[in-house]
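Researcher: Next sequence.
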Amino acid sequence: MLHYRALKHGIQAPRYWDTGGADRDFKWNNYLSRFHERHTDLMDVLAGYQPRASAKLDEVATLLGFPGKMGMSGARVRDAFLGGDIEGIRNYCETDVLNTYLVYLRFELIRGHLTPQAYDKELKLLRDTLVQEDKAHLRQFVENWQVG
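Model: Next structure:
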């Protein structure tokens, strides 16, 4: 979707689209290549790049004790939009990002990029930040987050 929105609005991003023609260092490690380190598609990486092995974010998040979708899903966004529930969509997107971030932190832990202490510190920082925000959907997120 981001590609098509950029196309529609004429957003220029030459470095993003560079696949090695302008910079040889980008040939094997560019933003568009599937097997690179400039961005991480957790679903692809965790599935070993096998389409049949992929799991939904909601399933992975809840497996790890994180809240997951909490009632809303991408399949319901269109209806929510047509019903004027922009706040509900925003809240869903925020919690989706939080779930993704929590799964990413766990991934960084298992691949050795975070120590257990650093991982716990990040979880505490996120939890404390969400509590300080004092918003109903974030409060619900924290309440559904199983500490373990």
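Model: Residues 41-144 form one domain. The mean pLDDT is 91.
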